[in-house]
Amino acid sequence: MNLQTLPIILLVVCHAQAFQYTQLAQYIDDHQEEHVEALRDWVAIESDSSNILKRPELHRMMEKVAEKLRLMGGTVELVDIGEQELPNGQMLALPNVVTARFGSDPGKHTVCVYGHVDVQPAKLEDGWATDPYNLTDIQGNLYGRGTSDNKAPVLAWIHAVKAYQALSMDLPVNVKFLIEGMEETGSNGLDAMILAQNHTFFSDVDYIIISDCGWLSRRPALTYGTRGNCYFYAEVEGSRQDLHSGVYGGTVIEPMTDLIGILDTLISPSGKILIPGIREAVAPLSDEEWKMYQDIEFDVDHYKNKIGVGQLMYNNKVDLLAHRWRYPTVSIHGIEGAFSDPGTKTVIPAKVTAKFSIRQVPDMDPATVKKQVTDYLQSVFAKRRSPNKLTVTMVIGAKPWLADTQHPLYEAGKAAIKRVFNMEPDLIREGGTIPIAKTFQDVTGKSIIMMPIGGFDDGMHSQNEKISRYNYIEGTKLFIAYLNEVAQIKTSV
């Protein structure tokens, strides 16, 4: 080849790509109402994975996902992942996991898009302004349970693939989908499925993309880390049955008093975790991380006003974000067995169980944390010299996930965001836990990116959950652009 013609060829290629994006973006704009109606159709299904009475709806939801992908010509499979055992011993079928494939060109990269279509519980009487299962468009916001978490992002990915098909354009990469229906209750059965299909479904996957998260502000974001979670029960048991406080108060050592006493030793009023070994295990904040946090768009006052508190634990942006994302926290969630109904019941509970969690960060290990918490609480309890019995149990041990922001996946993400939104993204972490990311990383060894399109004010898990038309439609364009950018990643030999 004449080297003098190379710049001209590259220029032509670049113009062709830009032209293709313009066509694809216009297609999305032209079919915006169709995409909103697809979301309306999905939101109408009460796919609440926590309510076993809604399990038929969940099965219907998975069938609907599979049918949509089949109609697009994908190679689709409904994967049976077994049953779950209910507290009463009853066995209940888990919803099938939907897998699909579009393209099998060995000369192209293959990406796997993960998402879920189950939702949190929602009732109008919970404080919703609209019917949570009837998509309602108010001033450009699409309200309904599951809109942002995670039905709109899943549909956006599907519509991105469909746009290429509709315009008879080859997909720049092979695309696989893995869509589940139990994420909101812990992704029951999915870990085993990933392990079982590591050398089949995942064998040719190069990269995994997760869009089950949101932006931090109005600026688009790429997510590179999540915290893990160790969830504990601390049970204190005393008498054989509940006692009348007028008859027995002052004569017995009450389990609730013991429980409150040991809970008070977990964390100081200033937020310092008091369990030995926890803080010492945390990876130190590097200068590079500090600089990244400094550059993120985040309004501390808006954050404070949004959640309705008069004072935060920290007053500057870097400290606040660091403690939200990359430092461990202790949260006390509730006490089972305590009297909590309206009225004045004068009871001494025979047994009470506290529920609390510790969010995990690098370089903490759940097995080590379990021992540290158990040993510490037993030691504190022993000092009380109580005749009651303490039992500490860890029921969740989810690890944190962290990606390399220098990986080409993130460079591709920046380029796609620049093309669609004409700005640089924030690089952020999530304070919550998405356990499947760590499972993907540990089992498959594939590189992972989290690419959110949900808004910072979408109210995931809350009343009046929504996604804006802007985020939904422009997010679809982002996924279109991202597939093209991933295709440009050079594979090292």
Mean pLDDT: 94
Shape descriptor reads globular
Side by side, the strands of the main sheet go 1-4-8-5-9-19
Helical amount among residues, as a percent range?
25-40%
Rg of Cα set: 25 Å
Number of helices: 14
Strand content: 15-25%
Distance between the termini: 24 Å
Largest sheet: 6 strands, mixed
Number of strands: 20
**Broad structural category:** alpha+beta
Poorly predicted parts: 1-19
Write the layout of secondary structure elements.
Elements: H1 6-30, H2 32-43, H3 55-71, E1 75-79, E2 83-85, E3 91-93, E4 97-102, E5 110-116, E6 136-138, E7 141-143, H4 147-166, E8 174-180, H5 190-196, E9 207-210, E10 221-226, E11 228-237, E12 243-244, H6 245-248, H7 255-263, H8 287-295, H9 300-307, H10 317-325, E13 330-336, E14 347-348, E15 351-360, H11 366-383, E16 389-398, E17 401-402, H12 408-421, E18 426-430, H13 435-444, E19 447-450, E20 466-468, H14 469-487
